[in-house]
Design a protein that fits this description.
By secondary structure, this protein is of the alpha+beta class. The protein folds into 2 domains: about 5-60, Arc Repressor Mutant, subunit A (Orthogonal Bundle); about 75-155, Glutaredoxin (3-Layer(aba) Sandwich). Helices cover about 50% and strands about 10% of the residues. It contains 7 helices and 4 strands, in the order H-H-H-H-E-H-H-E-E-E-H. Strands 2-1-3-4 form a 4-stranded mixed beta sheet, covered by helices on one side. A hairpin with a 2-residue loop joins strand 3 (about 130) and strand 4. Helix 1 runs antiparallel to helix 2 (about 20-35), helix 2 (about 20-35) packs antiparallel against helix 3 (about 40-50) and helix 6 (about 90-100) runs parallel beside helix 7 (about 140-155). It is elongated and about 50 Å long. It binds FE2/S2 (inorganic) cluster (FES). FE2/S2 (inorganic) cluster binds next to helix 5.
Length: about 160
């Protein structure tokens, strides 16, 4: 996958090519691209004079970093006990069928990534689906499909 080196250069410039700013730099790149492609990590390592293996070390230590392509929209379904007994699994399967991906995968057009979590700490309003950080409670398969359509449309 091709990346735009100008975007990486902008992030590096913004952070003054400071090797102590490695984590903010990686965060900024992920914010730009939604994930951390190998090519981007190579540029960062070279520009900051940090061994590539150390850059990888940071990206694998922090769970927030993704070394796999992620979609523009992150859809997270809660499968904690409370959400599970209220249909969380069915909702996951519905979304999975609709997007033709499994949990942890991204659609080919890089529009959606589907993830599952074990509890979001607001069980009372479950089952819960989170889209791009926004929580939707009392979810059903139907509502989830409508939400996906709405999210896809907003971007079109
Ligand atoms: S189980 Fe889903 S929020 Fe707790």
């Amino acid at each position: 996958m091709e990346i735009d080196p100008k975007k990486i250069d902008y992030v590096l410039m913004k952070n003054r090519r400071d090797r102590n700013a490695l984590i903010p730099i990686l965060q900024d790149i992920q914010a730009e691209l939604n994930w951390l492609p190998e090519e981007a990590l190579e540029i960062v390592a070279l520009e900051l004079g940090i061994p590539l293996i150390d850059v990888y070390g940071v990206t694998t230590f922090y769970r927030t970093f993704s070394l796999k392509p992620r979609g523009k929209h992150i859809v997270t379904v809660c499968l904690g006990t409370a959400c599970h007994v209220r249909g969380g699994q069915r909702i996951t399967e519905t979304i999975s069928r609709e997007l033709k991906i499994n949990s942890g995968e991204t659609t080919k057009d890089l529009k959606f990534t589907l993830e599952t979590v074990n509890c979001l700490g607001c069980c009372a309003i479950g089952p819960i689906v989170v889209v791009d950080g926004e929580y939707y409670g009392g979810m059903t398969s139907q509502k989830a499909l409508a939400l996906l359509k709405r999210t896809g449309r907003e971007e079109a």
